[in-house]
Write a structure and sequence with these properties.
single chain, about 270 residues, alpha+beta, Trypsin Inhibitor V, Chain A, 4 domains, 4-stranded mixed β-sheet, 3-stranded mixed β-sheet, about 30% helix, about 30% strand, elongated
């Protein structure tokens, strides 16, 4: 062991050590320089800027500069069809001749999507649902319905469409919404030939109020009256009125139900 340590201190060992280290360094340097020469590091052709160009213009530039290319397509709303959306490598990157450039263009034909279920949805809900499915909201119109802003119909190009129907992605749809007017209107009850108490009950039950009561003819029993006319009156053209509308009634004396029995009894007596 002492001889080994003595050898490490000799001049021969130092010379061998220095020689070995120099050899390793020389091998590494030669390999680095050779690799740089082989790959022509730092040299090449810069990739042209193709993003935003039409696909025809982009491929023409690549052909002129000797590049190969591959094209993929994707649909993007609000982007002109046939436009280069992405490129790889990026513009300005130095590459070898005949390098393949990968392009992503906006497809010229939108994929079809199904109309989502908008039944019972509100306007805000419908906007979010349509947006998530790649569709847009166009014009909105209103129709009579008890629920305000509820979706009643969906139309595309003037035609009513239904859940699941296929449409081009990005299509703009028209919505028909409820105007809420149904909540302010009620049916006019038919009160003719009803007794006054029943008519009053029907008026209040319909959300209307009792207006003027006009008595017609001789009234001998105020507890036995029948309705002979009303205003407003239910007709074929007028079936509804606003909540709280006053209903005016005309009443007359009703015939007692026991009058025919009394007359029969009088006729049977000798």
């Amino acid at each position: 062991m002492s001889k080994f340590w003595t050898y490490l201190k000799t001049k021969d060992f130092r010379n061998h050590l220095i020689g070995a280290a120099g050899s390793v360094l020389a091998v590494i340097l030669i390999a680095y320089l050779s690799l740089g020469y082989y790959t022509r590091h730092g040299s090449g052709i810069p990739v042209p800027k193709l993003k935003g160009l039409s696909i025809d213009r982009a491929t023409a530039i690549l052909d002129e500069q000797g590049f190969r290319y591959q094209i993929d397509s994707v649909y993007v709303q609000d982007q002109p069809p046939g436009t280069v959306l992405e490129q790889d490598p990026d513009a300005g990157t130095n590459v070898k001749e005949n390098r393949t450039i990968y392009l992503t263009m906006v497809t010229t034909q939108a994929p079809a999507v199904g109309l989502p279920d908008l039944e019972q949805s509100t306007y805000r809900e419908a906007v979010a649902i349509l947006s998530n499915n790649g569709l847009k909201v166009g014009d909105t119109t209103y129709a009579s319905d008890i629920a305000r802003d509820r979706i009643l119909e969906v139309r595309f190009n003037g035609q009513v469409i239904h859940t699941g129907q296929k449409l081009p992605k990005g299509s703009r749809l028209s919505l028909v919404l409820g105007d809420g007017a149904g909540a302010n209107e009620v049916d006019i009850p038919d009160l003719l030939n009803q007794d006054l108490d029943a008519a009053r009950f029907a008026i209040r039950g319909a959300g209307l109020s009792i207006g003027t009561i006009t008595y017609e003819g001789s009234i001998t029993d105020s507890t036995n009256l029948v309705v002979v006319s009303q205003f407003p009156m239910r007709t074929d053209s007028t079936a509804k009125t606003s909540i709280g509308t006053r209903v005016n009634l005309t009443v007359t004396q009703a015939k007692t139900t026991n009058e025919p029995q009394q007359q029969q009894q009088q006729q049977q007596q000798p």
